[in-house]
Structure formats: C-alpha cells, structure tokens
What we know:
This protein is α/β, with parallel strands linked by helices. The protein contains 15 helices and 20 strands. It is globular and about 70 Å long.
Amino acid sequence: MFDFSDLRDKNIAILGFGREGKSTLKFLIDQKVSFRNITILDTNKDLDSPEEVQKITGDEHLKDLDQYDIIFKSSGVPITEQLIPHKEKIVTQVQIFFDTYPGKVIAVTASKGKSTMTSLIYMLLKNAGYQVKLVGNIGTPVFDEIDICPPILPSGDPEFCPVPENDFIVIELSSYMLYELRKNNFISILGTIFPEHLDWHGSFENYVDAKLNILKWSEINIVNQETLEKFNLKKTYTNLIPYDLGSAYARMDWHFTIGDKMIFSTKERKIPGDHNLENITAVIALADTLKISMDVVEDTVRNFNGLPHRLQELWESGWIRRIDDAISTTPESTIEAIKTYGEQINTIFLWWTDRGYNFDNLVKYIKEYKIANIVFFPESGERIYEAIKELSIEWLEMYKTDDMKKAVKFAYKHTQQGMICLLSTASPSYSVWKDFEEKWNLFQQYVKELATE
C-alpha cells in the first residue's frame, strides 16, 4: 500500500518522461513536493521539461539510482538489471491508483482488441446512465483523470478520501502495467493472448504471466473462451464467466446470442472484422452481468465508429481505397486485417522494429489472398522479405525502403483501381519512427501531396 507521507522531503526520480512522466510531475507538484526533490531520468537528451527540475538523460540516466528514495516508473519502461536492485522503491501510477481508489473498477486487457473493448464498455456505461471515466493504456494517465487520495496537505496531515463521484472507472491495462501489479477490482476482462512485447518481457511465458495477473483478486472475471481453455484457467482462477464461441455468450445464425436466445444481428455494427465480433461479445457478457438492457447494448454497438488507426477506412484517392490499421503491431493483428478485406487488398505496407516475431503464418496469408504488392521497411521487413522471396511468387511486386514518400509513390503506381492499399504493419515502428501515429501522419501527408500533383 502506497504511503503518501513517503513523499515528504524525499528525493524522487521520474523514470521516463513521456505522457505518463509529465502527468506524474504535475501530480507531485500538486502534492507540494519541491522541485529540488525531483529528478527526471530519460534516454532522450532533448527533453521538454521545466528548467527548475533536475534531469539526467542519455546513457547515464540509470546511474547512481541509490540517491533516490522513490522512483516513479512510467509503464513502458522495462525492469532491467540496473533497476532490479531498486525494485522495492519503484512505484507506478497504476499501482498507486489500485492502492488508493475505493470505487468500482472494470479492468480490460488482451493482446489485440483491448482498446476497442475498453472504449465500447465506456460508451455502453455512459449510454446506460452511469457516471464513468476512462483511463489507462488507451491514452489518459490515471493521475490526469482520478483524484488520488488522500492528498498531502501543506500541514502534512492527510484528509480522508471522499466517496467516489463515478459509478465505474474503466481502465485499459497493458502487459507493462500488469507486470507485478497488485490490485483489487470489481470486474476484469481478459481477451485473446498471443506473443507480444517479447523484447520487454523476455519470453512469452513472462508475457502470459503478466496478462493473467489481471485475473487475481477480482470479484468477477470475464474471459475469452479460447484463452480460458488454452491456459487451463479453471484450474487456478474462480469467478470465471467465459465469452465467445463455445460459451453462453456467443454467435449463431448471424446473431449475437446469450444461451439459446438471439440478441441482435452481427451486421448491426460499423466496426469490421471477425475479431471485433469477439470484442462485442465480451461487452455483451459484461452488460448481462451488470443487468444492462440489451437494447442499450445494441444501440451502443450500432453507433460505435471504432478507433483511429484500427481498420479505419479513409478517403478514396485515385480510385484506391486506403485502410489505416497502423496500430496493428503484431503478425496476428495484421492477419486479422487481411482476413477482414481478403482479396480486395492489392498493396500492403509491412515493417518495422524486429521483436523476434514468427511471420510464417503472415506469409501464408499474403500468398493465400494473392496480395500483389508489398512495401518492406526495416528491420523485420527484411525477414519477411526473405521469407516471401523463397516462395518465388511470380505475380508479386516487392519494394524495400525506409522512405515513406517513396513507399506511397510505389503504392500509387502499383495498386489497381478499386482495390485496397492497407497500412497494417505486423511490427512496431520504433526503428524508423517514434510511434504508429507518426507513421500514419506521414502516410496521410504524402497521399494528399501525390493526389494533388
């Protein structure tokens, strides 16, 4: 349990100064922690940070950790060998939230689809008339949205935590956040699990252990049927409510079902893809658990437009359809995109940071659906390129580059009219760009430029 009195007159480090680190700095300042007691630690030498705050950047940022009493670690920073001796003084926003928040929390995780599920749940609860907030991995740090209590008063005396204003907090948890997380919450939802973030966790086994941590100490666990069976969860966990095919919450004859009862048509949705059928089924299981009317669920699903960069259909330019699936950063998620659009896909962009993924199934789907043009970016693009090259597919055009403008020009030249150019990358983009949003912004910029030439 985090003790707020520990913040007084202590040397505090903020490890990682992205969105979450900046949120942590604001929180500490609001708690009357002096600037002189705060040091920012980050690999980035060009940090945009207040001049009053000390900072250590670059390769030296993890030296002399002994001087700090408390280290606020951002979720995306891995526990390295340098940090292990200091684990007892490392805290995170999410851990403090679970240690202090007394209200009802609905926590969501999966290897794919967690942001869609989380957003749908948030929209459903609002439509059902509840007061609710959405936080976590989906983009809003917890300290920015939730009044963590008790705060430190100028006198040093904590005040009692008020009754929560919200009926529910919906929080999306990444495997980074779940790693060694201790929590108590109302409902946990666990979707599908496949290899992800192996460079961070070190192995698939460690990644799975982090994901399964969401099921510990929850009152109710709503779990994907395949995940439940694959990891034999009934042996370890209680209060399990399965969803998806083979469970009470499933689909039949183009309808979502609860048991033998048909609820509403699977066609009553704007978000494409079979994987989104699974996401909606999870939301139906939650709604039934909370006794929310299925009319409200149907209306929510029908009006949910999906999230940016997730199978998002954009404008047609030069009679070519462009699909933004830039957030797909694993082979499995790109396979789902390919299955969604099938042989309508004429060009696909694949790349970037090599996390040691296995691309064998992805290569099979590229061949099966006769995708004619592929743009490869480093680093994993090179491995996929060599794997596809061995197949000697005569109708395939392959192009290697690290320049987005050249890639878009290639797509303009080779994509047939009425067909799809798919930005679905099968790996993260860190070896070339900062994140998936930067690669999409460049893609969009050059598409517009070429359309006006």
